[in-house]
Amino acid sequence: xxxxxxxxxxxxxxxxxxxxxxxxxxxxxxxxxxxxxDSNVELVKKMTDYHLNTGGKRLRALLTLGSSxxxxxxxxxxxxxxxxxxxxxxxxxxxxxxxxxxxxxRRGKKTPNKIWxxxxxxxxxxxxxxxxxxMMVEDGNIEVLKLLSSxxxxxxxxxILQLQHKGEVDMLEETYLKIISSKTAELFAAATKVGAxxxxxxxxxxxxLEFYGRNLGLTFQIADDTLDYNSELKLFGxxxxxxxxxxxxxxxxxxLFQKANxxxxxxxxxxxxxxxxxxxxxxxxxxxxxxxxxINSCYQKAKHYINLSSNSLSVFxxxxxxxxxxxLTSFSLSRNF
Length: 337
Hints:
By secondary structure, the chain is an all-alpha fold. The chain has helices spanning 2-6, 8-21, 23-36, 42-52, 59-70, 78-100, 112-116, 118-139, 142-164, 173-198, 203-227, 242-246, 251-259, 262-273, 279-291, 294-311, 320-328; strands at 105-106, 109-110.
């Protein structure tokens, strides 16, 4: 764990370097999102304004802008429009996720479903997606349209797959990777590939950026799931045990179940079969996670995807943009926000 914590300054800097390198365009992305979500229906406006103002890293939008810059895109504002589009897909999935998971807190604030109810939140998420598809059509590129519409479909399938396996502490690691690849990594891959498409790059560069984004997304989600059980590194706005209380089976629980003895396995099964879990359940699970050094095992898994992601950029010439994206591959492991 010590080596992970020592990376914090370098990793956080890589995120801010990316943000600073496209800062002017990111401001235009924010303006585009706000203008696109404007509505005459008062509740729609309230909900979308609230959701978008809760913050967030805008990492997927930054990846679209950063990959476009890496590929030398200078022809217009399509990178801004599609970065906004990618961010709207993400925002819509978060609204739907909070309904499915009965989430109450995100980024330190109440979720829209806790304020306005599940029905309104589902419809508001649908509204975000519909606006997003309008923007795809306006862009006019059939390859982009195919990519982002397919991505939206895959994300939905990942959500259903996770529901299908809810509470299964003996879930295969392969199944978990399928879930996070669909729910998280697919949109990262689309965000980075869009930059290559806009710049009319060859297939090799498109595939390299897609591979980069996918493995970056896997790293990001593994780290996020691990943070839920790591009292040493606490992500702002996310309480320790949030996934646990929601009954989500993530990598720490999967690896723990693999290492646990027979009695511990039975207790874990009973714990996740319950309708609700309590603080004592969490404390017991955390004690086992500490006993078997599960946090370190999860980070070792994440490092594998970091290496795959970073190495995929070797097809590009050395540049400041390439260096920033390479450094960003370690961002997830010890981000503190």
